[in-house]
Amino acid sequence: DSEPESHDEL
Amino acid sequence: MNVFRLAGDMTHLLSVVVLLLKIHTIKSCAGISLKTQELYAVVFAARYLDLFVHFVSLYNTVMKLVFLASSFSIVWYMKRHKIVRRTYDKDHDTFRHYVLVLPCLLLALLINEKFTFREVMWAFSIYLEAVAIFPQLVLLQRTRNIDNLTGQYVFFLGAYRVLYILNWIYRYFTEPHFVHWISWVAGIVQTLLYADFFYYYIMSWKNNVKLELPA
């Protein structure tokens, strides 16, 4: 289950 | 990572450095809202729950640890350090946490990207960050003499928000699937809260007079 790419921000 | 995102992270980091500098070297937290600092500690704790579960990059992990450590140590300094805590302007920092925390929690339960514990906490952290500056802005308005470091601290925090919006615009055009309404709407609200402060900050800088917000 991959994370939403918004979660690569701080 | 694009240049806006990096510049945003760097101004965010700079704001923390400015605040730590004030607390560490001048041993003063005058004009700084403990309520806002406590809210930021909650924001980072809620958002970085994925720290040990979801690895993005070394940069990401290090920055998360820096923001967690700095936010909790600032709160510690303001509450426990025997010199710093005496400079805390308790009487003017009267905003109540729950006024901001409860609506954000409720909103996160209703509006999130997925109804799981981590996703709800993530949305909660986004909503709470958007309004966490509120007690600080109220305190600034009540402060007669805003010192330079306090003004710079809030200015860098606001700059970080503006740069993040530019980062989303850039990502929207380069990564077409990058649509995250929750962070975008909350981020724009958060940035608008600074608009008034920015106006007076730039005016005071332009006219070379001390920063003061109208009551």
From TrEMBL, chain B:
Pfam families: ER_lumen_recept. PROSITE patterns: ER_LUMEN_RECEPTOR_1 (PS00951). It is found in: Endoplasmic reticulum membrane. GO terms for cellular component: endoplasmic reticulum membrane. One of its GO terms (biological process) is protein transport. The chain crosses the membrane at residues 55-77, 98-115, 121-140, 152-170, 182-202. Its main location: endoplasmic reticulum. It is a multi-pass membrane protein. The lineage of its organism: Eukaryota, Viridiplantae, Streptophyta, Embryophyta, Tracheophyta. One of its GO terms (molecular function) is ER retention sequence binding. This is ER lumen protein-retaining receptor.
